[in-house]
Amino acid sequence: MFVLLAGPHSPLAFPRSIGAVEARRRSAVDGRPIVYWRAGCKYCLRLRFRLGRSARRLHWVDVWRDPAGASAVRTVNNGDETVPTVMVAGRPHVNPDPEWLRGRLPPTA
Q1: Stated pTM of the model
Q2: For residue 1, is pLDDT > 80?
C-alpha cells in the first residue's frame, strides 16, 4: 500500500524541475507558464495528472529544492508558500483549474 501511495506523491511523478531563474528565462523566450510545486502536495498532484501530456509543456519549479522558487511563491502569496502557484504571462494564479491552464499554453510547433 505504501508503495502505491509513494509513487504519485514523489517528485518522479512530475516533469523534471528547473530553477526559478532558469524557468523565468525560458518562459520569457517560449511563453510557457511556470508551475511552482512541491512533492506531497495533493493539489500539485491533481494539477499534474489532470494536465496529462500537456504537463511537459510547462516549466516546473520545485519550491523545496529551489530557494528562489520558494521566494517567488511567497512574494505573490502574501508570505505564504501556497502551491501550486502558476505564473501565466507574469501573473500569478493559485491552484488554477487544469483545463483553464491548458487553454493558456502556447500552440505546439
Answers
A1: 0.86
A2: no
